[in-house]
């Protein structure tokens, strides 16, 4: 089957894909970009076919590319063969991946946060850095957490930078957005632990109770956790700082606490 190869950056669908670098257009369309064969195939295996797929025309006959095209079309999406130059322009990278998909962004409601099977959730207060958020989604997925709660004004988990840093975990991670007040109200009826992490905490992270369903609550990169969120926790932990640095990077601190949670169960 020979397909028309799109080479023009002014093509309507290419323009739409390029617009997805901006939060405003992601919001308007409900779509976000994910690049690369492995991540797009991972999305399909988790039941999310791309709504749109662009692929290097030169790879049109590769088996995994065909698989992606079939999944995309089978789910009613559009697939387009494009030049490599256009892939570069869509991804804003010199050496682009050979496939880029536009997928539906999915935020869940707070109803999905249930204390089932002693599960773990990560809650992030006003996370600002997309690299941190993507790394945290990747780490949350690595320890088997159910999802990430985004409190108040967070960076967009569906920005290309966050999606890249998540390395595909974005597709296996439930995302819930709550305001600070909604989180505090929700916390009142949560039967498990809400473990806050703060430099001023007195409990060593190795001694906390990780046996129940847990929400691990992390503070903003600059300001840490505000008093209102600290009041919503059941305990607050700190990781010892032995050198001259006063804090860990947010994603590192999340990794240390999530692996401590995991250490208590495997
Ligand atoms: N200046 C901020 C403060 O006063 O909290 C530093 C924030 S730190 C870069 C970002 C988040 O990582 C903190 O809010 C906390 O959740 C976590 N964190 C970093 N280092 C930590 C430590 N040693 N103990 C507990 N939590 C830590």
Please provide a written account of the structure.
This protein has helices at 12-19, 23-29, 37-45, 63-74, 84-91, 130-142, 160-166, 180-188, 227-231, 250-263, and strands spanning 5-6, 31-35, 52-56, 78-82, 99-104, 120-125, 147-151, 174-178, 193-197, 203-204, 214-218, 235-238. The N and C termini lie far apart (51 Å). Helix 6 runs parallel beside helix 7 and helix 6 (130-142) runs parallel beside helix 10 (250-263). Helix 7 links the parallel strand 7 and strand 8 (174-178). It is elongated, with a radius of gyration of 20 Å. The protein has two domains: 5-104, 60s Ribosomal Protein L30, Chain: A (2-Layer Sandwich); 110-263, SPOUT methyltransferase, trefoil knot domain (Alpha/beta knot, 3-Layer(aba) Sandwich), CATH 3.40.1280. The chain is of the alpha/beta class and 266 residues long. It is built from ten helices and twelve strands. The chain has a seven-stranded parallel β-sheet with strand order 8-7-6-11-9-12-10. A five-stranded mixed β-sheet has the order 1-4-3-5-2. The chain binds S-adenosylmethionine (SAM). S-adenosylmethionine is lined by residues 197-199, 218-219, 221, 224-225, 238-239, 241, 247-248, 250, 253.
How many separate helices?
A: 10
**Which fold name is given in CATH as the topology of the largest domain?**
Alpha/beta knot
CATH class of the largest domain: Alpha Beta
SSE sequence, one letter per element: EHHEHEHEHEEHEHEHEEEHEH
Biggest β-sheet, characterized? 7 strands, parallel
Classify the helix fraction into a percent range.
25-40%
Quaternary structure type: single chain
- The CATH architecture of the largest domain would be 3-Layer(aba) Sandwich
Kindly report the spatial arrangement of strands forming the biggest sheet.
8-7-6-11-9-12-10
